[in-house]
Specification:
mainly alpha; single chain; 86% helix
């Protein structure tokens, strides 16, 4: 039966296999949606384990046994996370609460500035349609900011108070870090050779380098953006700086966060908002030109069209977690497809 199926034309085989593949994908999405809390925690733990495995491998290269390397990395990571949660966490929550509470005043301030702009445009005999459009935009942004702020504050509060999920995340991270290699070997052993080894190496290399680089860049940008905002005396500098830095974990997320934060600051002081936008763009350009190419290299290698498509599908399927893993997964698929399409080099006969 398999031989007769292979004898069919290529387009007909694709026509038969496509519904089966679509059905399997649909059932997989239903399963992921049904197990969404567990899948989200498992995916987050896997990403964090990938990050912790990078320094553990470096310690192993220097002669430290695997067990001691993992124990050292876990101890340092827990210490750092505890210090960050104790010092930076309360500050970010305080600034977020203050920002949500001050949103009505920011909206009123933005309306006053737009009214002054409208009066100036009328005095200069300039068209006022732009001012009217901005006024409508501010009204819509006000409701969006209030809803998003209240939801974000609720999400953060639930995340912090959900100790069971936090403990579950820590336990899963430790188990993945300790027994991850055996689990990976077991999963990829079901694939035919040589693609089992090729795909396993591609996934591990791409994920480690991508998430490791993204974590380093996000940390650097968080500090740099916060310092830039503090120089201009922007309120909620820590909250805005960390938000712009962490948003870079998602492609184009940093640009979106920069624009939104600049608009929020401009509601109170238009000139301050322009300065924030220019400073954030300058810091982002330094990252894109100097830091990111040196650290990221050719890890992604995706066309912008496929990059946007991967982000859309990742967000549709897995939400925020899907956005985080969409790019490396798409990169692995592209590299694997390129290897499949690459013609084998013929072996020259022995002379």
């Amino acid at each position: 039966m398999f031989a007769s199926f292979k004898a069919l034309p290529g387009w007909l085989r694709l026509w038969i296999l496509f519904p089966l593949g679509f059905l399997n994908l649909w059932l997989l999405l239903l399963l992921i949606d049904y197990l969404s809390p567990f899948v989200s925690i498992l995916g987050s733990a896997a990403i964090f384990a990938f990050l912790l495995d990078i320094p553990a491998l470096e310690l192993q290269k220097r002669g430290v046994p695997r067990g001691w390397a993992i124990a050292l990395v876990l101890s340092v990571s827990l210490l750092v996370l505890t210090l960050v949660a104790v010092t930076l966490g309360p500050l970010l929550l305080q600034q977020l609460s203050a920002l949500v509470a001050s949103l009505p005043q920011l909206i009123d301030s933005g309306k006053l500035q737009l009214r002054a702009l409208r009066e100036w445009a009328i005095a200069q005999n300039l068209p006022i349609q732009l001012s009217d459009l901005l006024n409508q935009t501010i009204n819509q942004l006000g409701s969006v900011f209030q809803i998003a702020g209240s939801k974000l504050l609720g999400i953060l509060t639930e995340t912090i108070t959900s100790l069971i999920n936090v403990l579950f995340f820590i336990v899963l991270t430790i188990f993945i870090l300790v027994g991850g290699e055996a689990a990976w070997d077991g999963i990829f052993s079901w694939l035919p050779a040589p693609w089992n080894e090729t795909l396993q190496d591609s996934i591990q290399t791409t994920f480690r380098r991508y998430f490791g680089t993204q974590a380093i860049l996000a940390g650097i940008l968080s500090v740099a953006q916060t310092v830039g905002l503090l120089v201009w005396g922007v309120p909620y500098a820590a909250l805005f700086g960390v938000t712009m830095g962490l948003a870079t974990l998602i492609p184009y997320g940093g640009a979106v966060a920069t624009v939104v934060i600049s608009i929020i600051v401009a509601l109170q002081d238009f000139g301050q908002g322009v300065r924030v936008l220019i400073t954030a763009i300058a810091i982002g350009q330094v990252n894109d030109i100097l830091l990111s190419p040196r650290l990221m290299g050719e890890t992604i290698g995706l066309n912008p069209i496929w990059l946007i498509a991967a982000l859309f599908l990742g967000g549709k399927v897995g939400g925020v977690l899907g956005l985080l893993v969409a790019v490396p997964i798409a990169s692995v698929i592209k590299s694997t497809a390129d290897q499949i399409r690459q013609p084998k080099t013929p072996i020259p006969p022995n002379l």
